[in-house]
Design brief:
Blueprint (H helix, E strand, L loop, with lengths): L1 E5 L3 H12 L5 E5 L3 H10 L4 E2 L2 H6 L3 E4 L3 H14 L5 E4 L5 H6 L9 E6 L20 E5 L6 H13 L3 E5 L1 H30 L11 H7 L6 H10 L1 H23 L3 H11 L3 H4 L1
Parallel strand pairs: 1-2, 1-4, 2-3, 4-5, 5-6, 7-8
Antiparallel strand pairs: 6-7
Length: 280
């Protein structure tokens, strides 16, 4: 199998590394608009060679789009235009409804599988690629009935080689759930970082007190602004719903502190402890 990966950052680079090492594919072709990313990916052995987009797509048995979501939506129809008859296309985007709508009437729609591997870090670029990053994580296939059984099998097999658990979901439902379990976490982290940096202007010693709790909470604020601004754009309606709920709870928290109702605050924290049942 020949696999073409478009976008050689954290996700694309980690894919190239694991799919080749685990025998899923014999040849990995890389495509990236950034010449330094191509240079680094070749040097690190994440891809076997680099090509221009059209040539790389035409020779591939599997094409993976691992670029920011706005670019996926723009490029996906062109990729489907160029693929050979037996080829399969998938994407790694963190939103899904925009992708499926962009190609819902494309003649090669059934060769495309909308997917989202729930894995990553706050770092970006090919040098951030991690061996085994996907192991034990969840991969979501969206609107899988719109894909051919062959395409679905290929993408499912790819994720099995990455040691991921595969589940299926409607694209619209995916975007709602992603807003709650992923996107709002990044929003909170970005806002906390801005809040602390604003205070740090007058109190530089604040960072001397920053322990592990702060570091883990604000870690996501190091994520790529280009990637995440596009995710927020594509999932704006769902994210607004999440923000409204988040702000309502934040205002209630503030109210209990203002009123000295710390027993009520403790009840809110006890209620939040229920998250252990999900995460532990």
């Amino acid at each position: 199998m020949i696999t073409t990966i478009i976008g050689l950052g954290l996700i694309g680079g980690s894919l190239g590394m694991d799919l080749k090492e685990r025998g899923f594919t014999q040849r990995v072709i890389g495509v990236d608009k950034n010449p330094k990313h191509i240079e680094d990916a070749l040097e690190l052995g994440l891809v076997d060679e680099a090509m221009e987009l059209k040539e790389a797509v035409e020779v591939a048995d599997l094409v993976i789009l691992a670029i920011p979501v706005n670019y996926i939506i723009k490029l996906l129809p062109t990729v489907l235009d160029c693929i050979k008859e037996s080829a399969v296309v998938t994407d790694m985007g963190s939103t899904k409804e925009g992708m499926v709508k962009a190609v819902e009437n494309h003649p090669n729609r059934r060769q495309y599988v909308a997917s989202h591997p729930m894995a990553g870090t706050e770092y970006s670029g090919p040098k951030a690629a991690i061996r085994g990053m996907f192991d034990g994580k969840v991969a979501i296939l969206c609107n899988a009935n719109d894909s051919s059984s062959e395409a679905k099998h290929t993408v499912g097999f790819m994720y099995s080689r990455l040691k991921m658990k595969v589940i299926e979901m409607d694209a619209a439902d995916h975007d709602i759930h992603a807003a709650y379990v992923s996107h709002v976490s990044h929003i909170s982290s970005f806002i906390l970082a801005n809040t602390v940096l604003e205070k740090e202007k007058s109190k530089a010693d604040i960072f001397n007190m920053a322990g592990g709790g702060f570091a883990s909470t604000v870690r996501l604020a190091k994520s790529s602004p280009e990637m995440w601004s596009q995710i927020f754009e594509q999932n704006a309606d769902n994210i607004m719903e999440v923000i409204n709920t988040y702000v309502k709870n934040l205002l209630l928290w503030r109210w209990h502190i203002e009123q000295g109702e710390f027993d009520e605050l403790a009840k809110m924290m006890e209620s939040a402890n229920a998250i252990r049942k999900i995460l532990d």
